[in-house]
Amino acid sequence: MPKSNIAVLGAQWGDEGKGKIVDMLTPHFATVARYQGGHNAGHTVYVDGRKFVLHLIPSGILHPGIACIIGNGVVIDPQALFKEVDELARMGIDVDGRLLISEKAHVILPYHRELDVLSEARRGERKIGTTSRGIGPAYEDKIGRRGIRVCDLLGDREALAQEVRENVNARNRMIIDSTLDWKPLFDQVVAFGERMRPWVKDVSLYLAESMTQGKNVLFEGAQATLLDIDHGTYPFVTSSNASVGGVCTGLGVAPKAIGGVLGVAKAYTTRVGEGPLPTELSGDLAERLREGGQEYGASTGRPRRCGWYDAVVVRYSARINGLDAIALTKLDVLDGLPEVKLCTAYKTATGTMTEFPADLRLLAGAEPVYETLPGWTSPTKGMTTFEQLPAEAQRYIRRLEETSGAACAIISTGSDRTETIVRQHSVVSDWLL
Ligand code: GDP
Ligand code: IMO
Ligand code: MG
Hints:
The protein is of the alpha/beta class.
């Protein structure tokens, strides 16, 4: 059992391999808790060649006996949740008795999905490129104080009927010629609540009690720091706090409960959806990374945009989240490249910048300043110790650490659990003692 509770979160634009890292660390914890996002997330985990894609359910679920929590900061589409639970059951994973859902989590209803699509269409060329899952509209309702929570589905039916009716009326006013009937939706929502009932708990209390008993928690992030509603590339972001602040608000735990923060970063950079990506590549090299890394969205299948590693981004993430260490993933994807590049600064209209700017116009015109290092010809794929890595790969990692301001305590060299290096004498090896 590790000494403390650890947050594992994305340090770039998502899809860094958080699912793999969470799965691999889970045996050292009693509980894995998701604190934000929804089924916009797609966390792919391979176990003995079997592929699992998790969206809402924490990536710890594949280990028997681990409690998996969906916090109040998550927005839950009940239909997506049931689909995931059924899919896991089909693959031999039973969630009953160890899936716990916060009674305060907000629900995504079918009209949120419609509003997401409509809002993107209205933005036209300025669209965000959302996952069309209704995430933004559900969080809008939450902040607008008209959202429906899991506990509302289980409580007084009259009150729920009124909530659903008012929300449907509001939606009908927003969409021209829309006359959605509230009653069938109400019946559906009641049925959602009944199926969820056995899983619903006071998650904050559960966590406090289990932490008092010395059971440690892994806090699992979805999306990533650069997609954070406050600290990301606004407005090309998701609608929640994916960075470490979300842990406290999204689970009802105190800041001092977070004993360490691990940022997951790819050995290069990807992004899916719209918005600036300073190190974006095009042509053969982009294609090489996309095919080598199988960079296609786990939720939507969209091809991910690919570029070199951006140390400005990860240094920014290290500051925002107080990263104790980096889990560097997909090093093997760079195997065989004649040279590799790291971005250490941006040349912009106002001069050279080494800190990540808030103004997207600066970022859109930013020209990356690269350091070029030699590539490596022998493969890193599947390696389990740092010493086994080719000297050039070791050099790349050392320079990446210096420029990012955090050490790589974990290096992932393939998608399987076993294809992982945990650096000796690193914070992670200390946590796991
Ligand atoms: P997440 O959203 O951060 O959990 O990441 P995704 O699951 O969306 O995308 C990461 C993809 O890379 C998944 O298909 C993983 O199986 C895969 N992956 C994770 N780590 C490695 C690695 O070290 N090497 C390779 N080749 N693939 C990896
Ligand atoms: P994981 O957890 C990568 C992106 C979308 C879009 C923006 C807003 O797998 O890393 P939303 O549907 O959330 O309103 O879309 O955020 N996005 C992700 N990109 N990985 C994810 O999750 C993402 N979840 C949302 O592509 O640009
Ligand atoms: Mg993903």
